[in-house]
Amino acid sequence: VDWCIELNNLFTKVKNGGKGSNHSVEWIILESPFVQIYQNLQGLVQQSFGHTHLMTNHVAPDMRKMFAKLQE
Question: The DUF6589 domain covers which part of the protein (predicted)?
Answer without folding.
Answer: 1-58
